[in-house]
Amino acid sequence: MNKYPAERREAILRQMMPPQNKPVSALAKEHGISEQTLYTWRRNLQSQEVPVPGNGKNAVVWSSADKFGVVLETARMNEAELAEYCRSKGLFIEQVADWREACQQANAAPTERNRELREQGKRPQRNQTVEKGFAAQREGTGRGSSADHPQKKGPGDLGGARGRLIGTLDRHG
Question: Does residue 52 sit in the same domain as residue 89?
Answer without folding.
Answer: no
